[in-house]
Amino acid sequence: MTVRLTVVDRGHVLAGVVREGESWWEAAQRTAGSLSGVPSPIDLSGEVKMFAIDHDWSVTVRAMTRGDLPLVTRWRQRPHVHQWWTDDGEPTLERVTEQYAADIDGTTPTRMWVAEVNGRSVGFVQDYRVGDYPDYALLTPDADAVGIDYAIGEPEWTGRGLGTRILWAWLLKARHRFPGTARCFAAPDHRNEASLRVLEKSGFVRGLWFDEPRRDGGVDTVVGCTLDLDRVLGAAGGT
């Protein structure tokens, strides 16, 4: 089956198809040709994969430092974030520092990132190899996958299509940081439809629901979502 795509640049729409052996992103870059800028996804969930060249927003991810922890604490306290992170307890600065300091220092398998839009910090991403957490790996379909959790902490930046751009900026780094990895994996709460849609638009596919144990003895029912890196990005993450 031929996969079709579009690349939008300042209102102009270019149509293309994915050739045999190409990833969706490689096909988008070829379709964009000599246009100024690199296409990033708008919505990869439909039959036509939609990309655009963004001239207004520069979205990047950088390594988190301990100096970011007061900002992360504020984000974790925001109601739209806190409702999905309740198992970690009340997000005081002391507790958030205890939770993330070792990850920032590089003494755990998890790495922390700050998402920036035009130089402004707006949210965070954490990633890890699923297999480095054996209890969690038993619940998931692929222990070799790279796991990811994320949040946009600033309320005014939600609902603007930035989630997809942030995940894409992270994916471009992750493709090179985890050579040989075939898939990425995320598992949002089954009620978090906004997060599930961001993942789908970024190229993730919804899979099985499963119950993830909580520290208080309860469970969270989550939806496993998987992204095929070769299909979406290509063997080397594009150019």
Provide keyphrases for this structure.
239 residues; alpha+beta; 2 domains; 8 helices
Helix content: 25-40%
Structural class: alpha+beta
Which residues sit in consecutive blocks of at least 5 with pLDDT less than 50?
none
The overall number of domains is 2
Number of helices: 8
> Strand fraction band?
25-35%
Largest sheet: 7 strands, mixed
In total, the number of strands is 11
The average pLDDT score comes to: 93
Provide the spatial order of strands within the biggest beta sheet: 5-6-7-8-9-11-10
Overall CATH class of the largest domain: Alpha Beta
By CATH, the topology of the largest domain is Aminopeptidase
Query: How would the global form be characterised?
Result: globular
One letter per element, helices H and strands E, the order comes to EEHEEEHHHEEHEHEHEEH
- Report, as a whole number of angstroms, the end-to-end distance: 25 Å
CATH superfamily of the largest domain: Gcn5-related N-acetyltransferase (GNAT)
**Which architecture of the largest domain would the CATH scheme give at its second level?**
3-Layer(aba) Sandwich
Gyration radius from CA atoms, angstroms: 18 Å
